[in-house]
Amino acid sequence: GDSVTQMEGPVTLSEEAFLTINCTYTATGYPSLFWYVQYPGEGLQLLLKATKADDKGSNKGFEATYRKETTSFHLEKGSVQVSDSAVYFCALILTGGGNKLTFGTGTQLKVEL
Amino acid sequence: GAGVSQSPRYKVAKRGQDVALRCDPISGHVSLFWYQQALGQGPEFLTYFQNEAQLDKSGLPSDRFFAERPEGSVSTLKIQRTQQEDSAVYLCASSQNLGVGYTFGSGTRLTVV
User: Fold this and answer.
1) Which residues contact B62 (CB under 8 A, 6 or more apart)?
2) What pLDDT, in 10s, does the model give residues A26-52?
């Protein structure tokens, strides 16, 4: 079945450090890919998305590129801030094969001063 | 409304008690989803509605779980004879355009004691 694998956390970084959170997927078709963020005590918020191969999603300084050849959608940010501390979820929707989001287990990011 | 609203925010139930969780989606959103998020895990799909029709209930873990959306707007997730393993955050999401991501509510945290 379809699945998403994320690097385990927590990831602890100093402010202004470079962030990478790895995400790979397995899907029988052509998925759309998403990153969601969950701040403490809040619901999931869509961070960025990409709907086809080689698309780059970006928002709030975060970027992720849909790599079909490596089935990956790694999340990056050049300079993290304390306010970026949250749990990040990679997810997919299988285009034309169903409407549900399949999530990874999440990666907790802690940014320290 | 401006966002997806869920109530109650927190619910403590004694084992064996029935509970009902409410979701008010964004006005006009045709699609509505319920997810279950166990502690430290990613959300897991429960069920999906398009308007009032329940098109997919493959994720409901047992026949104790029941969801409805009788008028195509507000939805209720009911859990009968709650068990400790039902303790989780229950998330509701709605969408106008499938495949481009959903808007999630803040969730209901259910604790079964």
Assistant:
1) none
2) 998 889 999 999 998 888 999 999 999
